[in-house]
Design goal:
Length: 598
Amino acid sequence: KRDASHVMTMLLQEATAGHRRRDKCDESVYFVEPGSGRLLALNSHAAVPRARATVIPPDVITAHAEIEVRADLADTGVAVCSPDVLALFTENFDYHLMRRDFIHGILESDILGKTIYAHILAGASSLPADGAGPAGGEGLAFVSHGGYAAGVTDTAAYDAISRDLIGRWTYPLCPDNSAAYTYNRGAVYKAASVRLDRASRVEHHVILGPHTHVANQTCIADSVLGAHCAVGEQSVVRGSYLFAGTRVGRNAAVDASVLGERVTILDNVVIERGCLIGDDVTVGPDVRIPAFTRIARRRMRRAAGTPASIHDGDSDDDAAWPEPGAAEGCADAAPDADGQELFDRLAIGAEGVGYVWADGADAGHGSDASSSASDFADDDDVALRLRRLHTIGSTARDAGAADSDLDDDYLDDSAQDSDDAAEKLTPQEEFERELYLTVKRACDEDLSPSKSALELKSLRMSYNQDQAEMRAAVVHEILRTVDVAALPDSAARVLRKWAPVIDEYISDGRDQLDLVGILERHCALEVAAEDAVRARLFVRLVYLLYQLDVIEDVAIIAWFNRAQKKLAGDVDPELLRALEPVVDGLDESDDESDDESE
């Protein structure tokens, strides 16, 4: 049966917990309707700190007789969308990212009424075979159960997909499909013009581009070398990606890193794992680059008093760039050949050309290094970005070790600034603060109810609040703007303005009962006044919302009866007695209307 509200189909791949294509920064649990494949809910949380439980939305359980809970799926980053998706992005201005904003927004929205489906690709396996594998592969027969799909979103995904290509999991899409490469034993792909010296050693899962040279006593493993690359004698390259024109000197080591085009690694240099080195950088000689360092030909642009950020290098605003030599790591910086630039040569070697970007795991070198720890200790995304660097070229076991290292480093960095850590708000506290500011801004700027409702809707989506939580929070915040000393006019003024907004969170009789309870709790617990004033405020609020058609008379009567029978929780007896005349009046009016109808 066709679903008219269907706007997207996500492509998911079965993958075990240690699979290299699983996102090491994010753990997701998918709730899927069997048979149709409709995605009912998606619970995503950061891998650090690890969650001990997952939350199942109650409406998913109550509305469906059967659901599948899948924690063995990897998001391929591929989705088939209808044209409605563009319109939804336009209408919901707070949507920026497909997964974090759009998908969660659609699944959690009671207003949009759209649905998302999941198409799940079965996993793939490799089995021993007596003969050659596909297209000349030896020793393995590859069995694909459901196809292959993947998207490159970061360096870890780039590494995982590259390994799948080299390992022939994407057959027939393999490097040797092109005439430029030939397949050799051990999943080694070589161009015809590659030159290997007699004593060189090329191990498994390697691509060697055209005109690449590997010298004697050199080992290459689990790596991709682009065109016109050269690796000197007694060097080692493992788990790395060297783009076109990169040259590695004698007695050097490159481990699980990415080197851009025309990078020069001089003699006796060690590049530890997880490093990213940009185009046209020179490193060395006789230097060790710490793990997860980032080096670029241009300095990181840094505005005064703001965190480091990447900007377009074509800007003429020189004041936005840090002064060369200003950081501790640049004290011994020397000018280059034309005398115009001072490179981070203390960090990258006496003949180095480039700058260390301070947003790495080891920010103790290079420009602005002295302030980098405090700048990034409170950055919520630093753990995610560093985790992705940790997983470049790592096995599942290495990734687990990196997780542990990252936890320690992140906690150490946070401990360096206890004042900032103390000021960090929990998500619920941050939501309450944003709600207060939203209501205050709406009052100060006299926003229309429709604009206020739209801002509150965006806030709800951003903080993943359900309908009941949002109703209680919004009503409490609105009632705080009532001036108790100016009753009854202040209550009437506030509710006439905000009644359309409150009505957005009322859908049935149960919600109306809950709203009366929210009014009672606010007056009983949050109003600092005498009992008579609190009772007068409660009665006034209930009756005003009745007059404004937010609460029906039957809901007020039902709540009063439940409260008398101790079914509405702990209720202030003073407030209950004050409401009794209103309930009696509503009962009488109901009786009169019944008599007239008869």
